Amino acid sequence: MSGSLPTRRKGSGAAAKVLVAVVVVVVVLLGMLMFVRPSTASTGPDQVALHYKGGAFSSKRFGDCIAPSNRVFDGPGDSHFAYPSSQTNYVFDADQGSDGGQITFVTRDGIEMAVEGVTNFLLNTSCEPIQIGSTRYPGGALQRFHELIGNRYVAYMTDDGQRSDGWRQMLNVYIARPLDTAIDRAGQNYTYTELYTDPLKKAAWEKDVLEQLPELVNRQTDGDTEFFNNFAITLQKPEPPQAIKDALVKQQEAVAKAKAAEAEAAAREAAANAQIAVEKAEAAKINERIKVLGRDGYLRQYAIDHGQNPYQPSTGSLITGQQ
């Protein structure tokens, strides 16, 4: 019996070695799966995504664009960056939940005013290849935007399809600043009363802002590629300081009182003129009757018409005594 013990020990050692080898193989396979697992991306109906190739041991390089409403499976280690293809709104007002605060500007007559509003635009998601100098961008304007701006600000959309904080931060640099400049420049062509009280002047100012905005945005973003387009803007009525508004109210009240006094004076003058016209007509009628009846005849008729007796008794014909 004692002679068989070494044989058993030798067999157990071999089994342990096999078990260890199996465990090592499993661990290696699991580790490989971590590196060879495919990457996936899914775009919504209002998204366009950029696909960048790059495994665990290779550099990142642009692959292709992913159109809206698509799901793709790419190589292990690849990356995907989605951007909105639908309209973007940049809202600026006093609400803390807005994209930006009120914008102030100075009018031609030196009054500082504040305005709220919204500007709408589209991100240029074109993936048509472009050549800028010696650099070719097979992913077009969207690839160039991502590599120059979007990636720096982490402006691409979140995994759940929302616009990120980086996107909003990017807008404050590349949209808000040009918008502020456009509003300020256009405002210098108008007085504060024109913008505050004249709807036509306010509409003209809004149009001036819209005409200047795209060029200022392009200048901010580089200019060689138009990253934003299809701008529209809506500006609320700009507000002057409260002291100016109070002065305008007093001025309008004074004007209203002056107009009321002027209207009352005009009414009195019209009434007087009407009375004069009546009296002139009456005098003309009297003259015509005098021509027909004579002066004494008219006076007698006047007395009769007014209940008087023009034929009073005379003592010259009375019998005053008897003989």
Protein described:
- The protein contains 7 helices and 12 strands.
- It has 3 domains: 50 residues, no CATH class; 154 residues, no CATH class; 69 residues.
- The strands form 5 sheets. A 3-stranded antiparallel β-sheet has the order 3-2-5, with helices on one face. A 3-stranded antiparallel β-sheet has the order 6-9-12, covered by helices on one side.
- It is of the alpha+beta class.
- This is Band 7 domain-containing protein.
- It comes from Nocardioides mesophilus.
- Keywords: Coiled coil, Membrane, Transmembrane, Transmembrane helix.
- It holds the Pfam family Band_7.
Features:
alpha+beta, 323 residues
Give the gist of this structure.
By secondary structure, the protein is of the alpha+beta class. The protein is built from seven helices and twelve strands. The termini are far apart.
Task: Present the secondary structure layout.
Layout: H1 5-36, E1 39-42, E2 47-53, E3 61-66, E4 71-74, E5 79-84, E6 88-92, E7 103-106, E8 112-115, E9 117-123, E10 130-132, E11 135-137, H2 140-153, H3 165-174, H4 176-187, H5 192-197, H6 199-221, E12 228-235, H7 242-305
Antiparallel strand pairs: 1-4, 2-3, 2-5, 6-9, 7-8, 9-12, 10-11
